[in-house]
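Hi! If you just cloned this repository, the fastest way to understand the data is to look at a raw example. We've pasted two of them here, unedited. The first protein comes first, obviously.
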Amino acid sequence: MARPPDNNRLPGEFDLIARYFKPLAANMPGALGLDDDVCTWAPALGEELVLTADALVAGIHFLPEDPADLVARKMLRVNLSDLAAKGARPVGYLMVTAFSPDVDEAWVATFCEGLAADQAEFGIGLMGGDTVATPGPLTLSLTAIGTVPAGKAPRRNGARPGDAVLVSGSIGDGALGLKVLRNEFPGLDETSRRYLTNRYHLPQPRVDLGRALMESGRVHAMMDVSDGLVADLAHIADASHVATTLRANAVPVSEAAAAILADDMTRLPLILTGGDDYELLLTASPDAVPDLLGIAAELDMRLTIVGEIAPGQGVTVVDRDGAALELASKGYRHF
């Protein structure tokens, strides 16, 4: 196999690990100081592991000019969002970094500062991984690990006819934030611009809300919204062998997104399908909804009813008059 090109802008592999990655593993005993090829860790009695992985490629999943610390934090948070959708308590993560020749030591230092900040915020640590060189583009992969009481993790396939469909937070901010970073919406006020770009760079995994909803035992199906609300609702419908109606006028949007829609309602499909929301999407019986809304309120979070589950298959998106909306795309697809 051909050797990858030397990356002269970085210290040697083991110096890089010792200088920047070992400190991230300092509070994770099973990581063994990153001196071994494995991590050892055991969940508490009665709990099972929840594992999820995502890869990020420069120019596809993040902009090459994005600050390194924000790239690191988003990589971590999108995985924590998957754990949140299962009600899991995050424990730690494994990480693979494939550094391209344009990455220098200052970039790595800032990248690790971002990881350290979110490790402190979410109470987790680095458990291990691998560091390699690549001719490009810069490629990053992270596997997040959490725990949940055995058999209690909500799945996609539990939706039932008659269920209400609910979503947390607001939808569309991440997709709009990417548009702002690409210099679209030039007339948007600065406060809205900052809000939307922050939502794109720093999604908020709903870890506490997901855990509380799981513990309630009232949720039938749950996942996070990453590929777009319509696409991810279709994932629930397909896995559960049901049909669902999404009421577009009920979908919660932020003030910044509302300002963009006020100028041009043709941007509504982007909000419904753009993705990068990392909110929780769930179904529950109507009699459970008041309790679930109360759980969210106690955490200073918002849940909104956006649709219903029925017998059949597929997703129908309707306007305020009940007329079906035709969408050119249902959501993000890698290929």
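Ok, and the second one:
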Amino acid sequence: MNSSNLLINDTNKKIMGYYLLRLRSVFNRVKYLSLFVAVYVAFEYKMLTMNGAKGKWWMFGLFYLIDIFFFYFNCYLVYPRAYIQRRTVYKPILLISSSLGLYFIISVLSYEMVVTGTNNLLSQINKATMINYAWRVFIVSILAALPFGFFTYVRMLRREKVLENNLLYSRISPHLIFNALNTIHADLKEISPNGAKMITYLSEYSRYAMAELAEDGKANLEAELGQLEILKNIHELRSGRLNLVVEIALIKPVYDYRIPPHLILTLAENLFKYGKNPDPEKPMLIEVSDDGKLLNIRMFNWKVYKSEVISHKVGLDNLRKRLKNIYADFFSMRIKEDATTFEIHITIPV
């Protein structure tokens, strides 16, 4: 056998191995569902024959094939797509209703064609048939929802475990940095007071980054504002006094408010990078207020024309995604920009 034939055989084996792996993967996914379906079909067939139902085997086979097809169709296609689009109400309802309606129509027509024939097909459909198949559609839709819900729950648990492991792993570096900063602070204290201050601020900042979040995944507004002061001190040590005005107008005490972690800090970083205008008449502005239902965070700055930093707004895009993950569509993030000013206004539920 020459080398070209060996290469062809090797390629064929790889292709066959690939499809065998795919088949094995599909089988592993549906084997338990298939057993569930087989038990359901056997049980129902037995109940029908015990109650006097008669017909040829292929008639029962046709009805069960329709049931099985829509069982898998809903479980693996319709319900997952509806779940993905769950942020909007009408799309999941329309998708599931269309699938169940199609299933109902095909089932009724198949029954009438097999039992009564094609002559005067629509006139043979009676109320009892409609009710029977409406109940059948309901049962099969529920049966398809059970495994889908179970698999979705299992995937959520696995995803939470992975996220938890990633979070714990990511904290290895901050712990190392935190310990190193404390050591450097001790060495710099006598040599460079400003350097020691910078290390102290960075140490406090890293401590906040490592803090455990509560079950709601949010941080305390009071702690966030405390970190804002530390961030301001860091920037002032680097580049001099910041021309910054912070206005807080809240109905309740500041510690009663919960916000996504690093929300204000992300906005402030953007402010300090691109809004350091030395003109005392053009300060940077941070406003935090609420009206009893909504928390408003507004940041405003005059543009610095000779800024050394080019903004790609990646941080703001990521912040918008974070807010959408937490609040779905129940938030607003508005950016107003012209030739001389930049303003961002975020509104979230209290």
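That's it. A detail worth noticing about the second one: The chain is about 65% helix and 10% strand.
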